[in-house]
Specification:
Layout: H1 6-18, H2 25-48, H3 52-64, H4 75-97, H5 107-114, E1 118-119, E2 122-123
Antiparallel strand pairs: 1-2
Helix pairs in contact: 1-2, 1-4, 2-3, 3-4
């Protein structure tokens, strides 16, 4: 069983912990680094799975959390962004793993499945 949901789980846990207001500033630096790396990795995975919308969503999320060219927001706005990012991470875990059995599903194959396995006029 492939555990491709692990980056999302790590990011979600770290983002939840970021909602605690007593965290030191260094925690948020590490959070940016981890989130940027995880979402960049997930964007590449989405690209390989030909999920273009997810490439954009995950790529933009990686840019928001990048530790070099930082986005400066207030703590309250970052809390909202963090909660939204948790939603993106959870949703991407399901979206990127749907049909990820290692082979590409073509349109013809998906139509065959809808017709009850009919292929070339015969049932399998």
């Amino acid at each position: 069983m492939k555990r491709s949901w692990i980056p999302q789980a790590i990011v979600c846990l770290m983002l939840l912990w970021a909602l605690v207001p007593s965290n030191p500033y260094e925690y948020y630096i590490v959070l940016r680094l981890v989130c940027c790396a995880a979402f960049a990795y997930l964007a590449v995975q989405a690209f390989h799975r030909e999920k273009q919308a997810w490439v954009w969503v995950l790529g933009i999320t990686a840019v928001v959390y990048n530790p070099i060219f930082r986005v400066h927001l207030t703590r309250g706005i970052w809390s909202v962004v963090n909660v939204a990012t948790i939603g993106i991470a959870v949703w991407s875990a399901f979206a990127l793993n749907a049909g990820s059995d290692g082979k590409k599903v073509t349109k013809d194959e998906s139509n065959d499945d809808e017709k009850g396995g009919e292929r070339c006029g015969r049932k399998s």
